[in-house]
Amino acid sequence: MRRLDVPSRIPPPAQGHLRLGDRPDQPDAITVNARHLSRRGKPWFPVTGEFHYGRYPAAEWREELVKVRAGGVTVVSTYVFWNLHEERRGVFDWSGDRDLRRFVATCAELGLDVVVRIGPWGHGESRNGGFPDWVLEAGCV
């Protein structure tokens, strides 16, 4: 027969050795220790899923994000594809299905955190990695 000795008290996790996260005195601080992430001083395990706002009709974002949330996702990651917002050099479009601010606000209303993945490279199966055609035509190295 084998015996398993379990300490009567598990020591607290090591802290401060990883320079990650927020200062603990911040209102919505995310901190890191040797065992887990914490949010607002409580253990936190984010579940992340991708949702590319520019590839979906803005009128349907809320309905789809409700489904994402119902599936257990708590953090939505989204690319900001340069070629979607500046198709022509110097002409930016952040309207309609390209309205990042509206997308992030919709996520917040539904209790979803957002990781905005800015480029310039967007490796989300976007043409030219998200670089606008005019960049490639300019002969940049």
How does this structure look, described?
The structure is a single chain. The protein is of the alpha/beta class. It has two domains: 1-45, no CATH class; 46-137, Transcription Regulator spoIIAA (2-Layer Sandwich), CATH 3.30.750. It is built from four helices and six strands, in the order E-E-E-E-H-E-H-H-E-H. Strands 1-2-3 form a three-stranded antiparallel β-sheet, with no helix packed on it. The longest helix has 10 residues, at 61-70.
Summarize the structure.
It contains four helices and six strands, in the order ββββαβααβα. It is 21% helix and 16% strand.
Using the 3D structure, state the CATH architecture of the largest domain: 2-Layer Sandwich
* Poorly predicted residue ranges: none
**How many beta strands in the DSSP annotation?**
6
Q: Sum up the overall morphology in one term.
A: elongated
Q: What is the number of domains?
A: 2
Distance between the termini: 68 Å
Spatial strand arrangement across the major sheet:
1-2-3
CATH topology heading of the largest domain: Transcription Regulator spoIIAA
Estimated share of beta-strand residues: 15-25%
Query: From the alpha-carbon coordinates, what is the Rg to the nearest angstrom?
Result: 21 Å
- Helices, by number, come to 4
Structural class category? alpha/beta
